[in-house]
Amino acid sequence: MEKKKIYIAGPDVFAPDAVELGIKYKIICEKYGFIGLYPFDNEAITSREIYKANCKMIEEADIIVANLNSFRGQCVDDGTSLEIGLAKYQGKIIYGYMSDTRSLRSKIGEKDKDGNTVEDFGHPVNLMVFNSCDGIFQGDFEDCIKAISKQ
After folding, report:
1. Do β-strands 135-138 and 4-9 pair in parallel, antiparallel, or remain unpaired?
2. What is the reported pLDDT for 122?
3. What predicted TM-score, i.e. pTM, was given to this entire model?
4. pLDDT given for residue 39 in this prediction
5. Phi then psi dihedrals of residue 134, to 5 deg
6. Domains in the chain: boundaries
7. 110-127, pLDDT tens digit by residue?
8. Which pLDDT band holds residue 136 (cuts at 50, 70, 90)?
9. In angstroms, rounded to a whole number, what is the distance separating the alpha carbons of residues 120 and 140?
10. For residue 29, what is the enclosing H or E element?
11. Which helix (H) or strand (E) holds 9?
């Protein structure tokens, strides 16, 4: 049986150790019987090339695993959100993981710092992201991959 390909989405590509993280994540995928596709696998240089190459990797993937932890604010990384939307449109299976799966309201309150209402559906992320995912796991990348491997 052919191994399923997992596109690894998330703001981890901005971490100081992004290359090492990508290698680690791909090894974890292999450990659980998957092939990991990490954005740095591309040799793209310009922003347009990076965009196109990542979109192509999403198209090639069977599953998307997204880091849904807050990034540069109180919500999911906007690039990750776009990748989830693109994958959903393509009918891909999408899983997310986060260290804190309490509801947005629990984490932020009824209003954000600018006075905007925070939705109250009990989800740990925005309703559009939540309902695009086939599952959201509490924990880290390996916890998510391990859970997927048992399904």
Report:
1. unpaired
2. 96
3. 0.95
4. 95
5. -85, -10
6. 4-149
7. 999 999 999 999 999 999
8. very high
9. 25
10. helix 18-31
11. strand 4-9
